[in-house]
Write a structure and sequence with these properties.
Largest sheet: 5 strands, parallel
Distance between the termini: 38 Å
Number of strands: 5
Length: about 140
């Protein structure tokens, strides 16, 4: 199964170029130009990874990350920004971001991050399912 990625960035040209490059690597890619649209898409579809810009009009990346993690804690969010600072990177990682990358990014490095994000998400979902099954089994009076 191919990886499914959501790219969130207010730079339309960047979204188009990156989408095309990831699709050439057999990934399913959706895009949003702001955090609000991204959140609506996350409510309707499942993704393996979300690439989030740090600075966008409206809801910025840090606020967007908080909302995404509240919606789906297992979703892997990677910041991809041209406005990186050490402080923002640390803040993002403390809030649950998987990684923090600066533009421009090597497409092979980006692809590898997506593969890792999918594997990490599958591991977390598997652990959650295992815990639920264990809880159900322990609550039964056989």
């Amino acid at each position: 199964m191919n990886e499914k990625v959501l790219l969130v960035d207010d730079e339309v040209e960047f979204l188009e170029a990156m989408s095309e490059r990831l699709r050439l690597r057999d990934m399913e890619v959706k895009t949003a130009t702001n955090a609000e649209d991204a959140l609506a898409m996350l409510g309707e579809e499942q993704f393996d990874a979300v690439f989030l810009d740090l600075q966008m009009p409206g809801t910025d990346g840090i606020k967007g990350l908080k909302m995404i993690k509240n919606m789906n804690p297992n979703l892997q969010v990677i910041f991809l920004t041209g406005h990186a600072t050490v402080e923002k990177g640390i803040q993002a990682m403390k809030l649950g971001a998987m990684d923090f990358m600066e533009k421009p990014v090597d497409i092979n490095v980006l692809s590898e991050k997506i593969h890792k994000a999918k594997a990490r998400k599958m591991l977390l979902v598997g652990k959650e399912a295992e815990a639920r099954i264990s809880e159900i089994l322990s609550s039964k009076t056989w």
